[in-house]
Amino acid sequence: MAQEKKNTPKREDGSQPIALPGIRRFQFFSNLRDRALTKNLNRLAMLGIGASLALDVAKPIAHDLPQTIFCYECRACYATQDRCPAAIAYQAELNVAARVGDHTRFIKAGGMKCIRCGSCVSFCVVNLDLPRIFSVGQERVMEALEAGRIPRDRIEGFLREGLFGREFIDRVADWFDKSGGRTA
Ligand code: SF4
Ligand code: SF4
Hints:
By secondary structure, the chain is mainly alpha-helical. It is built from 8 helices and no strands. The site of one iron/sulfur cluster has 16 residues, from helix 6.
């Protein structure tokens, strides 16, 4: 085996066949020294893809919403339309906002008005437990608000637009009283 290896001629750039000019033209792609670089670039790309996929999975788990990983973002749930008593037009937006912990996006999409009735569930192609997902999203928003992580003037704007449902108004008002002039 060792003998065989010893007798294998070393391939040089110039010794490669020139019968097919097309192959010769792209020959540098297959040269050993270039292949090492390509291989490492491929590894780096795979590492990047793997890390971003891991983050996509880790974030929803960290937010206690592992189910949201299965959301296709297909938007079939938008068909709920007037069957949503809170007049929420984009349920998938709530799902994605809750998954990534984007409180502003969640509030703007009407998440704090959701009464978790479950009407939209029958439109979800993977039958996600949307009321639970939205409930966790709402609780995360309230935690962020009470911890002062959402700027006060932004909350005032959301209140003016009527983006907080009745069940959260008292809690938000309490926070306003307690926080006084504090801004985040
Ligand atoms: S669970 Fe929320 S978003 Fe879904 S239909 Fe009911 S109120 Fe609308
Ligand atoms: S129908 Fe279900 S899977 Fe599709 S976007 Fe809505 S929540 Fe996600």
